[in-house]
Specification:
55% of the residues lie in helices and 15% in strands. By secondary structure, the chain is of the alpha+beta class. Strands 1, 2, 3, 4, 5, 6, 7, 8, 9 and 10 form a 10-stranded antiparallel sheet that branches.
Amino acid sequence: MTLVQNRFWHIQSGASEKQLLDKLAENFKVEKETPSTIDVCILDDPDAAVSASGKLLAKTGRNQWWLYHDEGIDKVSRVSAKARFWWDLPDSALKSSLKELIDLRAVMPVVDISISEQAFVTRNEDEKIVLRGNLTVVCRADQPSSNCLFVELRPLRGYDKAFERSVELLQGLLDQELEAVSMQAMVQHCGIGPEVAETKPGFGIYGEEPVELAVRQMSLQMLRVAKGNQQGVVDDIDTEFLHQYRVSLRKSRSLINLMKKAFPADTHQRLKTLLGDLAGCTNQLRDLDVFLLGRESYAQMLPENFQAGFNQLFRMIAQDREKARKSVSKVFQSTDHANTFREVFEILEKEPFYENAFASQPVLEAASKKIIRRYQRIVALGLKIDDKTPDEEVHELRIECKKLRYMMEFFAELFPKKAIKVLIKTLKKLQTILGDFNDYSVQKEFLADYEKKHKRSVELSAAINGLIAVLHQKQLHERTRVQQAFADFNQDAVRETFSELFSSQNQPEAGK
């Protein structure tokens, strides 16, 4: 005989535990067991990446973290009360999962909930237990009246009819049957977990839209993202808030510069100045963040006898980072900063001027011409590079690749999805080599400048100079890879795809 499986329901809104147990008492003797209650804090990162992946992260007051997923639940105990990042957790499957999900983001409290459970049994006339069940009440700590009630019924072998009768008795109170009985299923069904924002790719522009209107629309969208990240920087939640702030500003400034003819000359110049002001105050903080985030990889570059100076270096960088953070926080909360943002929005929200033919040109046509010309310039620069090419020309190639990448990403929604994605991926490979080459150069300059300003000990100078030497060797290695990386990019197939997508004779059909 096949045993009936456990079944789990959400109870109709307004129904109570008493009503449910009273219904069962019409045919059975109901006995309640000792109830239990646990307070739980639901966690997620600022991007709600955990929830978006279909998982649920929670912690209890007993220093336990739980990660619910389709395969079950991962748990870890003895977690520090100050833990915010995956690297703050003890080694565990949960730690590994979080590393993949949130990377550099912090986890933050989303909502506090209370989960109360009341186990019960029902007996027949012979005093035999014929059913076991469990009532679960989930409610928000800040809304104790918003209870969400669930019941699980567990049949016992030989008492299938008693189970079926119990379901009949409760039928008028049952709302929806659910497949799972986990906290994750209950929280999601109650709608009290983290909200996952629906993000649509692109900017919502269309091919025939005039250039100036499209650029205004795209710039405003990126600037809203930048502005939305400011409070996270002030609160020092994680370094990604500053990174996203800077990326959004950098992209909006690049778009405005790459399409500068879309605006009157004085408008373009004013926007360029204002956006530079909004980003400039964060340069030092981001440089220090990057070094602190790379501490582990830097530590592996030096022998053990350099560690005393290395530790001193990173203590000083951490101290300087805190000073820089306070400075940026002060700027972000200032009236001048708010006025700068307001002026930028006011300029971009104005009706287009359409001062010239380029400004009123269909954006698909303009973007195609810009992209193909930028690509041709990269090919011309790349073909000139050999072992004796000055570093400055390699950096110029990197800058041109960056501009092309931005252009392709800005206007990707106007072109066939698969083809543009392949081209961007191909360009990224070349960019990675050029980017690493440049990063090593920037890091060397940062450390050299830091050593000049902080000559506090022989150990510190030794550690800094040791890092500079290793970074120099890494830079030389990347330099040898530039020519091959460009050759991989400069293939016939890539050239043909660029011509097909962006040639003035072709009119791509977007989205395919």
